[in-house]
Design goal:
Radius of gyration: 19 Å
CATH superfamily: Winged helix-like DNA-binding domain superfamily/Winged helix DNA-binding domain
Distance between the termini: 35 Å
Number of domains: 1
Strand content: 5-15%
CATH topology: Arc Repressor Mutant, subunit A
CATH architecture: Orthogonal Bundle
Strand order of the largest sheet: 1-2
Helix content: 55-70%
Structural class: mainly alpha
CATH class: Mainly Alpha
Largest sheet: 2 strands, antiparallel
Number of helices: 7
Shape: elongated
Amino acid sequence: MKRDSRLSGVLHVLLHMAEQDGPVTSETLARMMRTNPVVIRRLMAGLRDQGYVRSEKGHGGGWVIARDLETISLRDVYDALGHPPLLSIGNRSEAPDCLVEQAVNAALGTAFRDAEALLLASLAEVTLAALSADFHQRLAACPAPDHKDHADAR
């Protein structure tokens, strides 16, 4: 099963945007993320609808973060993405009348719901400001300040 990396990707994009002094185009963000600008625009749509980012049109336009990083949690971003699957494992459903399958699915279903609730609560506790602070701490400790992986973030 393919992993859904939209949450990780959009958090990456938001942190790059936070490091810029002005609007950032979809094309620039796409180069940073090694993807297509259309993918960036799709990712940003839910964030724009929730008021976390806005787009500025015209020459010098692009995407900007519309709220203070301290006010946006990872859970907020997850919700704005439309609640992508958190777990890549699930219940078997090939024999719904099988009592063994029912018992297994009941136990796993409870465990999955508990795990998702815990993960969502953890995401709600972390803000974009905390991620930005972690990035800056890592950048300060980096021996090569012009390293390719974080040079785009400056």
